[in-house]
Amino acid sequence: MEQNYLDVKAKFIRGFSDKTRLQILECIKNEEKTVSQIVEELQGNQSNISQHLACLKGCGIIVGRQEGKYIYYSLRNEKIREMLELFDEVLNQVQTEIAQCDSHLY
Amino acid sequence: MEQNYLDVKAKFIRGFSDKTRLQILECIKNEEKTVSQIVEELQGNQSNISQHLACLKGCGIIVGRQEGKYIYYSLRNEKIREMLELFDEVLNQVQTEIAQCDSHLY
DNA sequence: TAATCATATTAGTGAATACTGATATGAAAT
DNA sequence: ATTTCATATCAGTATTCACTAATATGATTA
Q1: What percent of chain A has pLDDT over 90?
Q2: Segment A2-29 mean pLDDT
Q3: CB 3.0–4.6 Å: which of A91, B15, B32, B64 could bond B74 by disulfide?
Q4: Domain architecture of chain B: domains with CATH
């Protein structure tokens, strides 16, 4: 396993590891949206959202398509959607396991 | 989508988003290992590795099992292994797409 | 019981990252 | 051509995070 590959992989995954970015991804999960739509839906700061979009784009997680003065962002591909779903699945399973484990303490 | 859930989800994913932690996960992917085995294989600092193990454990990604003075760490379950594999799969696909896209510039 | 070994925790530091407000770019409308 | 609108970028600050060295805990061995 190359040292460098793990750096790239870590950076890629870090794209998903922030609340605001997860909100953005949820927001555009099913349909492309413009920056202003996203800003409004998340009640966020334009600059902040824009920077997170740049991050997600840089990680290869989303793509942007310009149409006039608007830029529409969407998930890069189906695999990304699968990832998002697997996150939920795995997290739920883990939380269930932990909950069961906790209950043994009583 | 609850605000709080996204925080938990982000924290969970952040567990995977560091090179050292990815190295640890690779290291114990196929068999449980003790802390000292991991430290040696990664040529790492004991304190540092220990803190990363605590992080991974706190995220619910790995579990530890004590046997005498040793603690054996392993992936929590099969789903986690699946996640690791999906990361590679998706990242490779993204990189391929980006490479193809770049080639259009010439 | 004392010494040793494996692991965890703490404190301190530096680097990376998220956020905000202000400004810049570039496209569309007037 | 000027103004307006959508988005990006920049500069500064605060927070989070990874790392190291030192110390603590807790189990085993002598």
Answers
A1: 85
A2: 94
A3: B32
A4: 3-76 (1.10.10.10)
